C-alpha cells in the first residue's frame, strides 16, 4: 500500500479532529475523501502532506513514517490546497520555473519539464500571462501543474473544484482522469459527489473525525441499499393513500416529500406490484411510481448525520 494510517489521531485541545483513523490506499488508486465541513478531511490531507504532526498514531506514505521521515516523503508527494496562495505577480512560465528550481530541476531539463506540464494542463497558451490575470479554474490547473513538476507518486488535492464554474470543474475532472490513467495515486476531497463517483476507484466517508466507510462505490451502495424505497404520486387524497399504504403488507414506513409519498419497504420485500394494485383497487389515481436510485450522494446522506465539530 502506498498510503496507510494506523490509529491516526489529531487533537486541538479538547477537540478531536481525527479519531483513530484507519486508511489504506493502494498504488494507482484514486481515493475520494468525503464528509461534512469540519469532519477532518483537511486535517488528514495536511498530515499526509507533512504539514501537521499527529497527536498519536502513525501515518505512512510510500513506506516512510510522517514525522520521522518527512524529508523522504516530500519529494514523493504533490499537495494542492483549496486556495491558490501567493506569487501572483509572476507570469505562468516564470512561476513554474521558480518551483522547478526549488526541486533542483535546471537547464534544458527544466525547460522540457515546464513545457510538459503546461501541455498536460492545457496552459501553454497562457505561458506568458500574469498569474494574477488567470481565472480561478486556470489557477487551479496551474496549481496542479506546479505539483507535477517533480513527477510525484502521490497527489493530495483538497477541494480542487471548490468555487469553480461548471466548465472549469469539467476541465479539472478530465485532467484528474488523465493523471489517474498515468498511474498517479490521487487522494481528493470534494463536496461534488457525482463527480467523485465518475473519477474515483474507492471512497472514504468521514464524520466527526471517525471513518464511517472505506471501499468501492459499488460496495457503499450495496451497504446502504438494505431496503427498496419508492416515490409514489397520486392525483389527490394523499393522506388517505398514505394510510392505505401503511396498512399494506411489506411497507415499513410512509412519509411525504415534495408532493410525493415516500414508501420504504421491508428489507425482504423487493416486488412492489401489489402496492400499486392496492392503490388502484381502492380508486386512487396513480400518476407516478418510481424506485429511488441509490448513488454516492444518497449513500452519503444515509450514512452521515450532518454533525460538525
Describe, in plain words, how this protein is organized in 3D.
The protein is of the alpha/beta class. It has two domains: 3-223, P-loop containing nucleotide triphosphate hydrolases (Rossmann fold); 226-293, 2-Layer Sandwich (Alpha-Beta Plaits), CATH 3.30.70. It has helices at residues 41-48, 70-73, 92-102, 107-120, 136-148, 166-181, 193-199, 217-224, 238-246, 273-281, 296-303, and strands at 3-12, 15-25, 30-34, 56-61, 64-65, 77-80, 154-158, 185-189, 202-207, 210-215, 229-234, 251-257, 260-265, 286-291. The strands form three sheets. A six-stranded mixed sheet has the order 6-7-8-3-9-10, sandwiched between helices. A four-stranded antiparallel sheet has the order 2-1-4-5.
CATH superfamily of the largest domain: P-loop containing nucleotide triphosphate hydrolases
CATH architecture of the largest domain: 3-Layer(aba) Sandwich
End-to-end Cα distance:
30 Å
At the fold tier of CATH, the topology name of the largest domain is Rossmann fold
Overall average residue pLDDT: 90
CA-based gyration radius: 24 Å
Approximate helicity band:
25-40%
Count of beta strands: 14
**Estimated share of beta-strand residues:** 25-35%
Overall 3D geometry? elongated
Give the helices and strands as they follow along the chain.
EEEHEEHEHHHEHEHEEHEHEEHEH
How would a textbook summarize the main sheet? Answer: 6 strands, mixed
Q: What's the number of domains? A: 2
Uncertain regions spanning at least 5 consecutive residues: none
Q: What is the CATH C level class of the largest domain, in words?
A: Alpha Beta
Task: Give the class from helix and strand content and strand pairing.
Answer: alpha/beta
Query: Helix count, per DSSP?
Result: 11
Q: Widest sheet: strand order? A: 6-7-8-3-9-10
